[in-house]
Amino acid sequence: MADKIGVSVVGCGFFAQNHLNAWRDLAKDGVELIAVCDIDAAKAKAAAEKFKVPRWYTDLDVLLAKEKPGLIDIVTRVETHREQVLKTVAKGIPTIVQKPFGFDLGDCRAMTLAAKKAGVFLAVHENFRFQAPLRRITELLRQGVIGTPSWGRVSFRTDYDIYTGQPYLLNETRFVINDLGVHVCDLARAFLGEVEHVTCETQRRNPKAKGEDTATMMMKHVNGAVSMVECTYGAHRLPDIFPQTLIELEGPKGAIILYKNFDLEIMVGGKITKEHADAEVLHWAARPWHIIQESVLATNAHILNALRSGKPADVSAEDNFKTFACCEAAYKSAESGKAVALEPLQAKAKSAGKAKAKAKPKARAKVKSPKRPAKKAGKKSSKKAARSKK
Ligand code: NAD
Ligand code: 89V
Questions:
Q1: C-alpha to C-alpha distances, 140 to 147, 148, 150, nearest whole angstrom
Q2: Does residue 324 sit within a domain?
Q3: Atom of ligand 2 at shortest range from CA of 99
Q4: Ligand 2 pocket, residues with Cβ under 6 angstroms
Q5: Is 317 within a domain?
Q6: Which atom of ligand 2 is nearest to the CA of 182?
């Protein structure tokens, strides 16, 4: 049995239920849930009772004063990430923060720099690349089955009702790129390499949404590869395959295509090899979310192993900063109608991040365009009655 590690989960809302289940499954690897925290006392208490966690809090500062977690897992919404991560990192506590890492690249840089300066482990819970079919594609690419891909498509298209489980998404001024774009851009980087520039068009198909719900991006990768990277919550397609991501990759030796329902085809030397790459439906999971739920367990297990072996996670803060830079470039491209190079953006965010990292959260400059989601909207939805975790 591995050494024990005390884990605290901050935020006990909709998606945290998956994290709590996954940490409970990792008890066999020494994980002990020691405390949970949510500003909504009912949610913190309910999570503590359901997952047999000995202590619950409604204030992260109090938790940090009383507990000594070996790992903190922040599963609150984006507007709280920067403030919370700066607190946990200042205490020297290894930290995981849910996606999107920050609201903008300045946030991401401030957190990345703070962790680097303090020498504290910081990972982003970017789980899509840990989904079973996408893990399989990574493995095939590492084996060089199709050679280095020079073209790819990463596609997430649905109009599944995500708003019942995540009503706050309708109020996000940065909507689908921050919510789904982070996943598909991360996959494009993972499969085709670092990105040189991004072109993007956005659409708002659902009039009730404040922000864009559709993004079509084209990326030029540093190695010359090109990818089409798309995500929408407004595609009226049947069957709706939520929450599946479809992949196409073409390399010098062949192609890999992930079709709907996890059917994977590997085309090499004039032959097609077919695999069914579905994930196990874990004992606490249910279709269609099982593919995401199993990836939460895989992501947590990967991050825990990285922490224990003293290495950065594959989805470290530094790595996810590069994914978020693609998203920032996509927003800027949609605004300007031009291709946006990543390098100057990353350099700019680096210096801005340094200055902001020193400032207290209250003293932070207001983001002019696009605006951050109104605090009221977040509060209102967080107080809603307990929702299904599916
Ligand atoms: P939610 O609103 O249901 O849950 C957030 C919880 O955080 C609420 O219970 C709220 O009371 C609590 N909270 C707010 N401020 C807090 C604070 N200062 N201290 C402690 N608790 C606080 O939101 P959600 O849908 O669970 O989303 C949480 C995060 O998970 C978001 O960043 C979202 O993007 C992400 N998410 C990821 C996936 C994925 O597949 N990776 C899927 C869904 C959501
Ligand atoms: O946050 C997310 O990743 C979600 C999804 C529905 C894909 O889980 O919105």
A1: 10, 11, 15
A2: no
A3: 1
A4: 162, 166, 179-180, 183, 243, 292
A5: no
A6: 3
* Of 187, 184, 194, nearest in space to 136 by CA: 187
Tell me the one-letter amino acid at 267.
Answer: M
* Residues of the domain holding 162: 129-277
Q: What is the pLDDT of residue 2?
A: 79
Indicate whether 111 and 141 sit together in one domain: no
Asked whether residue 106 falls in the same domain as residue 137, the answer is: no
Whole-angstrom distance, CA of residue 76 vs CA of residue 72: 12
The reported pLDDT for the residue numbered 366 is 36
Spatial separation of the C-alpha atoms in residues 44 and 65, rounded to whole Å: 17
Residues in the chain: 390
Ligand 1 atom at minimal distance to the Cα of residue 15: 26
Q: Whose CA is nearest to atom 1 of ligand 2?
A: 179
pLDDT at 344: 94
Based on the fold, state whether residues 43 and 182 are members of the same structural domain. no
The mean pLDDT values, 10 residues at a time, for the chain of 390 residues are 93 98 98 98 98 98 98 98 98 98 97 98 98 98 98 98 97 98 99 98 98 98 98 98 98 98 98 98 98 98 98 98 98 98 86 52 37 38 34
Does one domain contain both 73 and 212? no
- Check residue 351 and give its pLDDT: 62
Q: Residue 254 — φ and ψ, nearest 5°?
A: 165, -160
Distance in Å from the first CA to the final CA of the chain: 32
pTM metric for this prediction = 0.91
Same domain, 111 and 152: no
Retrieve residue 307's tokens: 């922490």
Instruction: Give the 3-state secondary structure of residue 85.
Output: helix
Return d(Cα 189, Cα 211) in angstroms, integer.
25
* 361 and 103 Cβ atoms separated by less than 8 Å: no
Nearest alpha carbon to residue 99 among 329, 368, 341, 323: 323
> In terms of domains, do 353 and 364 share one?
yes
